[in-house]
Amino acid sequence: MISLQNKIILITGASSGIGTACARIFAEAGAKLILAARRWELLQQLRDVLKQEFKAEVHLLQLDVRDRVAVESAISNLPDAWSEIDILINNAGLSRGLDKLHEGSFQDWEEMIDTNIKGLLYLTRYVVPGMVKRDRGHIVNLGSIAGHQTYPSGNVYCATKAAVKAISEGLKQDLLGTAIRVTSVDPGMVETEFSNVRFHGDDERAKKVYQGVKPLTPEDIADVIFFCTTRSPHVNINEVILMPVDQASATLVNRRS
């Protein structure tokens, strides 16, 4: 098992959900955290909690991963003490809408493509060259069961997560011959802000997604990511698909009530 003491870990989408859960588990392990998100106040609150509970060293980036120039600036202007990133966790992502393709919202499409694909590419493009130069590092991409199985009205979201799967596989191939590892963690149902965001803040509709089901938690996903990043250096866990016991596929869910 690799020690993460003083390793520098960059987590996007860190202000809530899986990103926050990752920040906590890595802080407890003694890692130094670069936390990136759009919501500055939530980032500051998280930093204060991590410092109080774990005495963690934390560097904050208010960042929209869709903005390529902002991503380039954020990475190139990291203080020297924070510039050698050991683990990149591309967690920022979202789903918008649940419309049939021929009735879909162009704005929803663009937001998903810009965040889930282009944002992940931007971070990867600006962080990985440093890893290659140092011949060490690990990229963890947050995919989804939706990248493996398309479901009705999932069209563009499923396409973006299929892209994450392809990008992860391609990156692993491109890094062959280096000591850098690449992992895609692809969950099924996880209770986060995901459904609330998908339904544009409709809390009642979001709650129905998880009704009668015990979904995965952000902590479950963070635990799997932590496991993948702490294996022996010669071990690369390429892909992990995990779902709650009450889910058998993207569309098959056992609802108990």
Question: What key phrases describe this protein's structure?
Answer:
globular; 8 helices; 257 residues; alpha/beta; 7-stranded parallel β-sheet
Please provide a written account of the structure.
- With 257 residues, the protein is α/β, with parallel strands linked by helices.
- The chain has one domain (8-242): NAD(P)-binding Rossmann-like Domain (Rossmann fold), CATH 3.40.50.
- 42% of the residues lie in helices and 14% in strands.
- The chain has a 7-stranded parallel beta sheet with strand order 3-2-1-4-5-6-7, with helices on both faces.
- Strand 5 (138-142), helix 5 (155-174) and strand 6 form a beta-alpha-beta unit.
- Helix 1 runs parallel beside helix 2, helix 3 packs parallel to helix 4 and helix 4 packs parallel to helix 5 (155-174).
- The longest helix has 29 residues, at 106-134.
- The radius of gyration is 18 Å and the shape is globular.
